[in-house]
Design brief:
138 residues; three-stranded antiparallel beta sheet; 4 helices; 3 strands
Amino acid sequence: MSKELPEEIKKLVDTAKSQGHAVFAIKLAGLSYYYRSINRQEFRTLQEILVKETEKVRDEAEAKKAGLKPEDPKIKQIDAWTEKEANNIREAGEERIARQGLLYPPFGENTPAGVMSALADRIMQASGFGSEEEPELL
């Protein structure tokens, strides 16, 4: 990727850096994406949303199961629904992370399907999650 950034992107990068974020560029599906790390407060806020969504699904599943016998076939349907909702929550969480950290370009209707997930992973890595650095023995 070229070091000379268009002025619009340079401003976004400079602003993110001035706020203490690490900024990166990556080419995915033939397009250049610019993203930044997320801080602890941003991550906590995103986690709170996930917790609320998860608790809501759990509570709904428990309410649907109330009064059913363990062998009732509706239990399997409710469990399948719960698993589907858990996947939806995970995908929504990835999207929120990607949107929080993405500087440029904005996501659009034609953004390739895997870009959101790939960027969410990169943003988490940039933010110190999943770091596999070896500690230094003193």
